[in-house]
Specification:
The chain is of the alpha/beta class. 45% of the residues lie in helices and 17% in strands.
Length: 222
């Protein structure tokens, strides 16, 4: 489900579970991989990507409506904790969007410091307006979105559920680069490799200060 390899100063975390739907197994695997990255020695930065058509297609709604019904709240809490962890991760991070990043998958991307998306196929979308979930986003999620994106884009994205291709996502400031599929991970690596030598404790402290409001909301709601 999660593969982790090291390329010099870079840790390449690859989600390889098809649509990479978020459920307890996914969260456990992600946190285990992040534990290993954090416990590593030396200069380091994190690149997170997927395989095939999907970066991540969000929550495993079929599982949550079926056999996972009793654990749905646990998954939501775990996902919020993952957002908070990535937001304050003590090294530079970049999401390399190989394909669709929907809902919770899009939020995982936003929790990284940077985002690179393929320009020709795949969409970034927060479609909660169309899911009929009543209260679709936790308060901390709004704080992450507002910290990352321009106000008019936030409004458009959440009110319309619009799907953004790579070039439009770049124009709107959702991603930092839009490149051919074969260059997504390479370009992502270029964005953070020069930051790998930054002191981890300082990096973490600065991020906690930058995103204090969002982190406090996540902590309050945990």
């Amino acid at each position: 489900m999660i593969e982790l390899e090291r390329d010099g100063d870079l840790h390449i975390l690859t989600m390889c579970g098809g649509e990479n739907r978020i459920n307890p197994d996914f969260l456990a695997a992600m946190n285990d991989a992040l534990d290993r990255v954090e416990s590593s020695e030396g200069a380091a930065a994190l690149v997170t990507t997927g395989t095939g058509k999907f970066f991540s297609n969000g929550l495993d709604l079929d599982w949550m409506a079926g056999e996972g019904r009793e654990r749905a709240s646990e998954v939501l809490a775990g996902l919020n904790a993952l957002f908070a962890r990535l937001l304050a991760f003590p090294m530079a991070t970049v999401a390399a969007l190989n394909g669709h990043a929907f809902a919770g998958g899009g939020m995982i991307a936003l929790a990284h410091d940077y985002r690179v998306m393929r320009h020709d196929r795949g969409f970034f979308c927060l479609p909660e307006i169309d899911l009929g979930m009543g209260v679709p986003l936790a308060a901390g999620m709004y704080a992450v979105i507002e910290a990352r994106l321009p106000g008019p884009v936030v409004h458009e994205m959440l009110i319309t559920g619009r799907r953004y291709g790579g070039e439009e996502a770049l124009a709107k400031g959702i991603v930092d680069a839009a490149v051919p599929e074969a260059e997504v991970v390479t370009r992502a690596a270029e964005l953070v490799r020069g930051l790998a030598g930054k002191d981890r404790a300082t990096m973490g402290a600065i991020k906690r200060g930058l995103y204090r409001s969002a982190l406090e909301v996540f902590e309050r709601d945990s």
